[in-house]
Write a structure and sequence with these properties.
By secondary structure, the protein is an alpha+beta fold. It has five helices and four strands, in the order H-H-H-E-H-E-E-E-H. The chain folds into two domains: 54 residues; 72 residues. It is flat and about 55 Å long.
């Protein structure tokens, strides 16, 4: 049975949220480590750590969001993005720690980065995909 990096991260997060004594916690960590070794997933550890960080912030009801746009965004555009992200991640808009920056290399559109997840709606990305498709 294959376990995804997100499933490992959820196991660790659930283990952390349980009120365990140090011996029980050590056993839980050892069991998860043994799963890594048994399934030969050690190469996925950095991905698990990244996903775990995002899930932990979500569980604490906070998310760091970096938005880069080709042109400066208007307040109402930022508000719409925050609303959509709030719906997607199931947290209050006030709990989104949003930083916004302009990046003229994008040619148009925007890129949203949350932890290890990137949503690229830039013209630059669309042109790169078109170029790859034509190659």
């Amino acid at each position: 049975m294959h376990i995804t990096p997100k499933q490992y991260a959820l196991l660790l997060l659930n283990l952390e949220h349980q009120k365990l004594g140090s011996d029980e916690l050590k056993k839980g960590i050892r069991d998860i480590s043994n799963l890594f070794l048994k399934n030969k997933d050690v190469s996925e550890m950095s991905r698990v750590e990244q996903i775990y960080s995002v899930l932990k912030k979500q569980s604490e009801q906070e998310l760091d969001v970096d938005i880069r746009s080709a042109e400066p965004l208007l307040d109402n555009e930022i508000g719409i993005l925050k609303m959509r992200l709030s719906e997607k991640y199931g947290i209050d808009e006030e709990k989104l720690n949003v930083s916004v920056a302009s990046d003229s290399t994008l040619k148009g559109g925007f890129v949203v980065k949350i932890g290890n997840e990137i949503m690229d709606a830039s013209v630059k990305e669309k042109l790169n995909k078109l170029k790859s498709a034509l190659s």
